[in-house]
Design a protein that fits this description.
Elements (H helix, E strand, L loop, with lengths): L3 E4 L2 E3 L5 E7 L8 E7 L6 E7 L4 E3 L7 E6 L4 E6 L8 E8 L3 E3 L3 E5 L2
Parallel strand pairs: 2-11
Antiparallel strand pairs: 1-3, 3-8, 4-5, 4-9, 5-6, 7-8, 9-10, 9-11
């Protein structure tokens, strides 16, 4: 099993930045893909960004150029740097680990509002 603990959410004004962290209970080298997803009220959960064990990244079109996913293998932690935040980025953000099974964190709320 993999336990995932997210942190770093909060309230930020439009144009601001936040960095989310996801600490995994297992070495990232043993996890095929780590990702961030989000779910806004009344909407389905959607992919935000992923990073493979080899370091390849993938982003949703809506966040390209604004969000950056990265990993610190020594800390078993994946980050999501979010810049130029917009109100439509408001959602609960979930960390995901894809191995032989799929694991989810508990989620962290991000609210972008003036």
């Amino acid at each position: 099993q993999v336990q995932l603990v997210e942190s770093g959410g909060g309230l930020v004004q439009p144009g601001g930045s936040l960095r989310l962290s996801c600490a995994a209970s297992r070495s990232l080298f043993r996890i095929n893909v780590m990702g961030w997803y989000r779910q806004a009220p009344g909407k389905e959960r959607e992919l935000v960004a992923t990073i493979t064990s080899g370091g390849s990244t993938n982003y949703a079109d809506s966040v390209k150029g604004r969000f950056t996913i990265s990993r610190d293998n020594a800390k078993n932690t994946v980050y999501l740097q979010m810049n130029s935040l917009k109100p439509e980025d408001t959602a609960v953000y979930y960390c995901n680990a894809d191995t032989a099974s799929t694991y989810w964190g508990q989620g962290t709320q991000v609210t972008v509002s003036s």
